[in-house]
Design a protein that fits this description.
With about 240 residues, the protein is α+β, with helices and mostly antiparallel strands. Among the domains are: about 80 residues, Hypothetical Oxidoreductase Yiak, Chain: A, domain 1, CATH 1.10.1530; about 80 residues, Ribosomal Protein S8, Chain: A, domain 1 (2-Layer Sandwich). Helix 4 links the parallel strand 3 and strand 4. Helix 2 packs across helix 4. It is elongated, with a radius of gyration of 24 Å. The protein starts with 9 loop residues before the first strand and ends with a helix.
Length: about 240
């Protein structure tokens, strides 16, 4: 395989394909619908930053599935602010952290927060691209004894890009071939199963049980092979009955 697409052991995966598979995997993790998009971005940032990324996705999907009910609490009356994540995964918490810190700075605060009770704290750096999109950079520290992370922010220098995904958009991400196809197959669990009924309603047309097509007659995106096989079988059964 050429360097443009990767090698025999790695694939160069486009941003679009990464997003598609990661979003499906967030559904496999049984996240609340409102958390799917932002948590998908956290997983993408994890891969982009060289954290757990694709290699640890199966593990992190299990952690996301096992997360406690949403009971995050914030103490805004102390400095720095204190956030108790109550067993939530860092990927889920990251966009909230970004918004809290940016809001604090814009309201005249120091833009600093301490975080406890977070699952997968090694993934907390995914907050950095969320902050970059809002024009801020982050400094992150981890107290191993108290198991508390501290994040502080400051405005980015003028002229710095606010688009964290620009390199991925241009170059894609390198993913081990076996890892990618393993995750691709796992992501299929989020899709409706292929069936006679699902193909009848695929694309811009509906195929009635008697073979009548409703909708565009120039449709060329729908695979009708399963329907044709079923209809031929029905016709043969009918002829045998007579």
């Amino acid at each position: 395989m050429s360097s443009e697409f990767g090698s025999d052991h790695n694939l160069r995966v486009s941003l679009r394909e990464c997003r598609m598979v990661l979003e499906r995997l967030m559904h496999v993790a049984k996240l609340d619908p409102g958390q799917v998009g932002s948590t998908r971005d956290s997983a993408l940032y994890s891969a982009m930053l060289g954290l757990g990324g694709f290699a640890s996705l199966r593990k992190n999907i299990q952690l996301l599935r096992a997360s406690e009910q949403w009971q995050v609490t914030l103490d805004h009356d102390v400095q720095p602010m204190r956030l108790d994540c109550a067993g939530q995964h860092a990927w889920v918490i990251a966009p909230l952290l970004s918004d809290l810190l940016v809001d604090d700075v814009r309201c005249g605060g120091p833009g600093e927060i301490s975080i406890s009770g977070m699952v997968a704290p090694g993934e907390v750096r995914v907050v950095e691209p969320f902050l970059q999109k809002q024009g801020f950079t982050a400094e992150i520290s981890w107290d191993r004894v108290r198991e508390v992370a501290r994040v502080s922010v400051r405005p980015m220098p003028i002229g710095f890009s606010r688009d964290p995904l620009d390199p991925v958009r241009r170059e894609g991400l390198m993913v081990p071939t076996t890892t990618w196809w393993d995750l691709f197959r796992l992501s299929s669990e989020a899709l409706a199963p292929d069936s006679f009924e699902s193909r009848r309603h695929a694309g811009a047309i509906i195929v009635e049980a008697d073979g009548r097509v409703i909708g565009r007659q120039d449709e060329d995106d729908t695979d009708l092979s399963l329907l044709a096989k079923q209809l031929r079988g029905s016709a043969q059964d009918a002829s045998l009955d007579h």
